[in-house]
Structure formats: C-alpha cells, structure tokens
Amino acid sequence: MRVIVTRVQPQADAWAEKISARGHEAVALPLIEVRPLADVQSVQAAWQRWASYTAAMFVSSHAVDFFFKENKALALDLKGYPTIKTRVWATGSGTGKALLAQGVAAQLLDMPSVLSGQFDSEALWQVVGTRVKPGDKVLIVRGTSAAADAGAAVDAASGVGRDWLAQRLIQAGVLVEFVVAYERGAPHWSAGQYALAQQASLDGSVWLFSSAEALDYLRTLLPGADWSGAGAVATHPRIAAAASALGFGVVKHAKPTLDTVLASIESMP
C-alpha cells in the first residue's frame, strides 16, 4: 500500500524516508508551502520587546526558523544574557528541537511530555496554564495563510489551536500578542504531481495529514475528486474530521509519532 505524505518540506521527505525504511512505499506530496514575508518589520520589532514577554509560543518549527532568521542576533543574545527569563513554549518535539537548535536554554522550554501522546494547544495548556497570572504578556509566533486567495475555507487569522490557546490566556488575564513570521500557501504542483494525486485518489493509497489546511488545499487542487476509494491517517481529531468531510473512505486518527502512524496505516482494510 502506498502512503502519500502531505507535510510541508523538508518534513515531507523526512517522513517519507522513515516510512519507506519500515517497509512501505511512501511518496512526499506537500500540500502546503511556506514562504518568507515581504515585510519583516513586525518580526524584528517583536524581538526588540523580547525581554518584556513572560513567554513566547511558537506554533511550528517553521515559525522558529523564520523568526530567528529575521533576528540573527537572537540566539547569541539568548546564550549570552542569562538574565533574559522569557520562557519559550512549543506544542511538539519538532518545534522544541528547533528552538533548542537556535540557542534557547532547555530550562526555559515548555512543551507537552512525549509520554502525553497529544501535541497541540490543549496539551500545552496543561503544562503552562497554572503558571501564568494576570498581567503576564505572551507572544504567539505564527504563520499567516494565503488560503483565502486560493479559495480554501480556512481561518487565516490565527488557526483553531492558536485561537483556543489565546482565549485561555485572555481568560486568565494574560495580555496576548500575535506576530506573523512566515506565510503558508497552496503548493505549486508539477504535472507529475497532479497525476500522482489523481491516481492516489483512486488506487487505495493512504494519505497522511498533519494539517486541516492541507485538506482545504487538496479540495481546491482536485475539485470534485472522489476520495471514497482512498484512506487517510490524521494526526489530530480535527484533521480527521476534515478528512471525513472531504469524503475519504476510511479515516483513522493517530498520534503524531512514527510508530502510531504506521500502526494506523497497517490497520487499514
């Protein structure tokens, strides 16, 4: 059975290689592309205020990469000035590793335990919710979506998970500030990629989804496609619901770890 990995690059290639190494045919077919912003003044301004934040939450490894790219001195400052106590939040290990690679001290990093099996804003809140207090200030570093221009029905403002976390923080009396560090958009597929996607909608392939936004782009890229003959493995219940709504014949929810994803793929009828 073939597995279609829809993650953003370079994660798509990395996951395809891991799945292939475990005996399955896996192909990377990214459904989201990320791009730098034309205007990075707001990102640079956020760094100028870095020490004023109680914590900064990064929504993805891409948010980390683009934020630090536009603030090249930030990693050196974080290493050189231990008096800077701004905590840094991540929802998953990939984002956590990206932060550590940029010089964030491990003792300042908060994220869900790998044993929790859930890596989203709700799981992060279980870690940090009791630590925040009224008057604290939290920065949320995220991407913005070009989905509205592509005709996809997603929330371009902040995303479900980020909005949920922001509401919890506001209810706790925390001041929340968003900064956009990069742009997400629909991929630019080649003729070969279109042909692959069309075939994989019909031949029983299993599609691996880690984003509901990716499903919106898929709907736009292949309008009217019949997905009833394809399977889907989604790494969050909200994503699984979106795959079901699009019409995938079999949809399974798996925690975003290689072993659980593979178990779901192998349990497909």
Q: Describe it for me?
A:
- This protein has 269 residues and is of the alpha/beta class.
- The chain folds into 2 domains: 2-32 and 190-266, 3-Layer(aba) Sandwich (Rossmann fold), CATH 3.40.50; 35-185, Rossmann fold, CATH 3.40.50.
- 40% of the residues lie in helices and 20% in strands.
- The protein is built from 12 helices and 11 strands.
- The strands form 2 sheets. It has a 6-stranded mixed beta sheet. It has a 5-stranded parallel beta sheet with strand order 2-1-9-10-11, with helices on both faces.
- Strand 5, helix 5 (93-101) and strand 6 form a beta-alpha-beta unit.
- Helix 3 (61-69) packs parallel to helix 5 (93-101) and helix 10 runs parallel beside helix 11 (237-246).
- The N and C termini lie close together (10 Å).
- The model is unreliable at 147-160 (pLDDT under 50).
Give the terminus-to-terminus CA distance.
10 Å
Number of strands: 11
Number of helices in the DSSP assignment = 12
What is the CATH C-level name of the largest domain? Alpha Beta
Order of strands, widest sheet: 3-8-7-4-5-6
Overall radius of gyration: 19 Å
The total number of structural domains is: 2
How confident overall, as mean pLDDT? 88
Task: Point out poorly predicted stretches.
Answer: 147-160
> Could you say what the CATH architecture of the largest domain is?
3-Layer(aba) Sandwich
- Succession of helices and strands: EHEEHEHHEHEHEHHEHEHEHEH
Strand content: 15-25%
Structural class: alpha/beta
Shape: globular
